[in-house]
Predict the structure.
Amino acid sequence: MTIKTKTLAITGLNGFVATHVAVHFLERGWAVRGSVRGAARVDEVKAHAVFGPWVAKGKLDVVVVDDIVNGDYTALFKDVAAIVHLATPLPAASTSYASIYRPTIDAAANVIAQAARMPSIGAVSIISTASAVIDLEAAFGDPEAAAKKAYGEDSWFPLSDEQLEALDPAAPFTPYLWYGGAKKAMELAAAEAHKNVGATSALSLVCPPMVYGPALTLELADQEPKSLSERLQYGLIAGKDADLPQDMSTVYTDARDLSEVFFQLVTQRKSGRWLVAHPEPMDWTVVTDTLRKVRPQYAHAFPVGKGPGLLERFGSATYDSSKSVRELGITYRSLEQTFGDAIDHFAKIGKLQARAE
């Protein structure tokens, strides 16, 4: 059974991924209603270069949900056909495991409970993360061993809640381990909550790794990147003598491919857990070497790696997203497309100037 009415609710509309998801649905004939935290952000979103034309056409609306954990979603969910839940606590803001665990679980449960009271809703899709899938402790502590691992939809972040509570809050990677644990707990709790409230909608849980592609949230040359994805990609144009961005992962996906995954899950009313990643790994050495070939006019801006990259040193774990190809028909963009288009967007908004070499 597919969904025929075409209004989508998105939580966290002004985020990097959410902007892509909204545009993807709008371009395919859907109306979108999105939430932001704070009334001041409503006018900002409506005036944004990406969203403004859709607002003018009456296809995009923005509502305020200040509290994603306990807030009332009635205005956002009323009469919509589906929900993509993207608003989420981030690891950098956490001071303890409880500080990210409880809000992450409760926010998803709140969405599911309120969605179940809306008879128009046929599908709910919630973003999780690859951190809920992979062995992050090995990735941070023993990258060579981590590169030998293979992950699928039945793989789970291995640390228990008790182990996570015992971690040193001052250790540099602790917030990311807490994040992985909280997202795993959220997935399990969401499935249980969906069952307990007797929801008839499809429920899908989507686990992307790092997400890249054009930073549509940025529209002006003097606008500072906010999300981690934006900041890392902005580091690609820091100049030849700059350091490469920090390698966070060798596994990635394009925001536009992730948006198509959400689109297919919603329109086909698919349930279950879905891994979403480009089939080929990357590191920033590979990316900048590629960009010098496909965007030579900007070669002066791309940092030059000082030594072998992450892939050459350790290799990469396998993150099997073949189910998305097989069952949803996803065709993943090439690395050249993902990062070449990201660079083109920086140039379009004036953050980068072409130069003859």
The radius of gyration is 20 Å. The mean pLDDT is 93. The first helix runs from residue 16 to 26.
